[in-house]
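yo, Transcriptional regulator is done. seq:
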Amino acid sequence: MATILIIEDEAAIADAVLYALRAEGHVAEHCLLGREGLARLRAGDIDLAILDVGLPDMTGFDLCRSIREFSALPVIFLTARGSEIDKVLGLELGADDYMVKPFSPRELVARVRARLRRVSAPGGDAGRWREIGAFAHDVAGQRIRFAGQELALTRYEYLLLAALLARPGAILSRERLMSDVWQDAPDTVDRTVDTHIKTLRGKLRAADASRDPIQTHRSLGYSLKA
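structure:
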């Protein structure tokens, strides 16, 4: 079972897609506007997105471009725009598939199934990444992406960021972070946490200067806004 987001402004089409996906056993959600859908995708826990091109507030092409700045989840276009140039543009922007209306709900479900199977295949790179807002975490490979870019982290930078990612929004004290991250270095001082937070912030800014996801809570500790 997967969680699938449909971003579509035509209610009849959205209802047909929602019904077909739920009949297959998936959790299906619907957003009417592109910006609403983008916010939902940034919140994480979506396995696949189905996009219309002609949305009221932005084009599906612009939406796909924005999604690819922070996520590698499968994207399928479902649109009335069936020209060759539109199909090529959609795929070049990072979509995984492109279907033209009118469409067969059974065929759409089959394509969704194929994309999800490819992502979750053993050894498939995308299947190892868990998305958490603007972050993606490959626990087995000890890798973290932010805003679509893989971060070059030292061992302790990775462990520190992973500890924050494990509880997004929660305030973790320096003592808690010391205990979780520096288990094999008991003589490490509290300022080590601050130093590593500073270097982490620098690497996150290099990936996306518009965001500062690590929040400082004076006398309390740090939290992560994913």
